[in-house]
Amino acid sequence: MKKMRSILVPLLTILLGACEGTGGPPSPDTVAEAAGVTFSVEAAAEMLAPHTQLPNQAQVVEALANLWVDYFLLAKVAAEDTTLASLDVSSLVEQNVNQQMVLQLRDQVIQVDTTLSDEEVQEAYESTLPGAQIRARHILLGFPDNATPAQIDSVRALAESLRSRLVAGEDFATLARQYSQDTGSAANGGDLGTFGRGEMVPPFEEAAFSLAVGEISQVVETTFGLHIIRVDERIVPPLEGNQDQLRTQLQNRRVAEAESTYVAGIIEAAGVEVHQDGFETARLLAETPNMELSPRARERPIVSFSGGAYTVGDLQDWIQLQPANLRAQIQSATDEQLDGFLRNLTRERLLIRAAEREGIQVSESRRDSLATDIRSGVKGAAEQLGLLNLSPGEGESTDDAAYEAVRRLLEQVVGGEKEVIPLGGVSIALRKQFESLINQVGIDNTVTRITEIRTQVQPVSPPSPVPPAVDTAVPDSGGSGS
Question: Which of 394, 391, 429 lies closest to 82, judged by CA?
Fold first, then answer.
């Protein structure tokens, strides 16, 4: 743990150094700020405390704070103009434009002959046999637990001896009953029944499906031990009726192979190099996607290539759009996995550059159309959340009206009366357009305050009354007798 901290502290210093725009640390009484309006510790605690089914944890408070920022900024924009014309969606438009450019590049530069004759389809069918099943027998020889090298050699020698006897013509079923250690099939002469691809462990399946009917396999080793296999029957569905589907699969495979070759050439020519500190940076951003970075930190390269770089800011923008489970995978990924991940992200950047070199562009009218579509979608979300047609009361500002509408909305969300509508990329656009922050100190203080509120309202049980003493002695009869 100390070693990890020693790595992260200088990294944080590099990333967070020279942060701008906050005007000093936020008040400890503030959980979040957005466009100059604050969401206080007391407001957050009063909202969460009554709902004791929610755990009093920092993650819950942080989720509420992020929702408040997103919904308040959306309400603010909607209150000022219901057409959302003031919402800057340029980053979202650019994301769509990039996707369209890559698709156009593929159509323009990937020229593949996808014409397939009936003979080619038949040949492919016979070599791959999609949907085929086989009926097979096997003899299994397992290794003893903690086997010595001599014991392993002895089992291998027995397997080779049995194979030789089978090839010489001895009855497979008889030898399987005598020697096979697979209790499920040995009594049946090693018969495994019928099975298709994906039903057996890979080495066994590869060997079995490569055999002709009646052929004896070489000795095959799997995690279960050593196998000798014989195929008794092949069941192959007819090509008729599956021909069009197989043809489409073969055509798609040709296109995919051509794309892969083209992309590999671009990456090789660019000399892509992943920086060693990029792995820890990726994990840190996945853990804290909304951390504020200085302009200099955002421009730091994580991956370098000829004529450009993929930067910390690029990665943060991408990570912020991803779901929590994917961010968790990034945090726990190995350096090797993160290397591949960062190269894949860089690949899109290189493809966009290649599209630009090919003269591929998206017209301004198309960009305007994309912006209109995005605003229409955001407007629908605002309407569904009840944040679209806000009317400030007497003496209220639009910010006041937006704050009150969001407060009511979040109370319904916390109470389970309304579903959360995540804003995805719109959240990033809003936070780029307006200053905002989430205050960790305020989050911790909210957790403390919730504990105080819940303790105060929890009724104190009166002390249990002491039950009267019970005389369990048998009463004296007084001698009145008989």
Answer: 391
SS3 content of the chain, % helix, strand, coil (to 5): 55, 10, 35
* Separation in Å, CA 394 to CA 37, 67, 72, 81: 19, 27, 20, 19
Taking residue 329's Cβ as centre, other Cβ atoms within 10 Å add up to 14
- Most confident among 224-233, 292-301, 457-466 (mean pLDDT): 224-233
Integer Cα distance of 332 and 338 in angstroms: 10
- Measured from the Cβ of residue 384, the count of other Cβ atoms closer than 10 Å reads 12
Strand partners, 125: none
Where, residue-wise, is CATH 3.10.50.40 in the chain? 132-235
* First vs last C-alpha separation in the chain: 87
Directed axis angle between helix 312-320 and helix 335-357, to 10°? 100
φ, ψ of residue 32 in degrees (nearest 5): -150, 155
Measured between alpha carbons, how far is 312 from 315 in angstroms, rounded to an integer?
5
Q: What is the mean pLDDT of the chain?
A: 84
DSSP 301: E
Place of tokens 């000399």: 271
Domain 132-235 sits in CATH at 3.10.50.40
Largest interatomic CA distance in the chain: 124
Query: What's the CA gap between 36 and 72, in Å, rounded?
Result: 11
Q: What is the pLDDT confidence band of residue 24, given thresholds at 50, 70 and 90?
A: low
Greater pLDDT, 235 or 366: 366
Q: Give the whole-angstrom CA distance, residue 464 versus residue 443.
A: 39
The residue among 315, 295, 311, 293 whose CA lies nearest residue 303 is 311
> Which letter does DSSP use for residue 152 in this model?
H
